[in-house]
Design goal:
Elements: E1 4-6, E2 15-18, E3 24-27, E4 32-36, E5 42-46, E6 51-55, E7 61-66, E8 69-74, E9 77-82, E10 91-96, E11 99-104, E12 111-114, E13 117-120, H1 134-139, H2 149-155, E14 160-163, E15 167-172, E16 175-180, E17 185-190, E18 196-201, E19 206-211, E20 215-219, E21 225-230, E22 233-238, E23 243-247, E24 250-254, E25 260-262
Antiparallel strand pairs: 1-2, 2-3, 3-4, 4-5, 5-6, 6-7, 7-8, 8-9, 9-10, 10-11, 11-12, 12-13, 14-15, 15-16, 16-17, 17-18, 18-19, 19-20, 20-21, 21-22, 22-23, 23-24, 24-25
């Protein structure tokens, strides 16, 4: 049996419920939902922005999907796809501790930037990121399914709430869900050893993932952009401009004409 409860201290008809998938789901009127498994994996969906972010229970796997780009991280490897919404010449990248491979999908050439500099490299393969992989991240090695519906139902009464200066917070053990008063931001904060934060806005069209392992930001608007950071590696994509790859002291990537350049 599923149960739906109106969130305390919410004036917008926002709810929390247990689902038939054996998760707890916060659902806000602005189109943002937060799904939490019993083991603490989290998935945030922003329907208006067509954006999703998820982190598994142990924090070693995460994903962000947004119209401007996709990011998937597993352990020390980060896969990136930046979407060229004008000409379809999407950019792909794979971040490793030793360097970054990158390419444009309409070109056979693969480039590598590492401590030795920038050069071509034909031996690298890239992840197919056409489908939504965030549900896989949410359910990876976690308890879920019909057998846990009643367990999640019992946990609904453990959710506490308080009013903050900036909005309202609901908390279930080490997970806090905060609805801010400005721009309809929803923040999900996971505390503990594998702490992270997912933030999304229905009005601005952004989704952000902040963690010790990887940072990722994707946004709509007049200045669409996609940004991924892991240690000393960075990828920044300006949708109407250029795809920039940074590893250590090297700044390279593709310019406005899809030519390999140094920045």
């Amino acid at each position: 049996m599923t149960t739906t409860i109106k969130l305390k201290n919410s004036n917008n008809g926002d709810i929390v419920k247990n689902t038939l998938q054996g998760t707890i789901s916060f659902q806000f009127k602005n189109g943002i939902s937060v799904d939490i498994t019993l083991d603490g994996s989290i998935r945030v969906t922003n329907q208006k922005a067509n954006a999703v972010a998820a982190v598994n229970a142990t924090g070693n796997i995460s994903a962000v999907m947004h119209p401007v780009g996709f990011m998937f991280k597993k352990d020390e490897i980060v896969h990136v796809r930046a979407n060229d919404m004008h000409f379809g010449n999407h950019k792909l990248a794979k971040i490793r501790p030793s360097g970054i491979h990158f390419k444009a999908i309409k070109s056979p050439l693969v480039y590598l930037v590492d401590e030795a500099g920038v050069r071509t490299n034909f031996s690298e393969s890239f992840m197919n990121m056409e489908r939504d992989i965030t549900l896989d991240v949410l359910y990876k090695d976690c308890r879920h399914g019909a057998m846990y519906v009643n367990v999640c139902n019992d946990l609904l009464s453990d959710i506490s709430s308080r009013v903050l200066e900036t909005g309202t917070e609901w908390k279930l053990y080490d997970v806090s869900v905060v609805q801010e008063n400005v721009h309809g931001f929803i923040r999900v904060i996971k505390e503990g050893r594998d702490k992270f934060e997912i933030r999304s806005s229905a009005s601005v069209g952004t989704i952000n993932l902040y963690s010790d392992a990887v940072d990722c930001t994707a946004s709509h608007g007049t200045n669409h952009h996609f940004f991924v950071k892991k240690n000393n590696s960075r990828i920044h994509y300006e949708v109407r401009n250029k795809f920039m790859v940074r590893y250590g002291g090297y700044h390279t990537g593709f310019n406005e004409c899809d030519e390999v350049s140094f920045f």
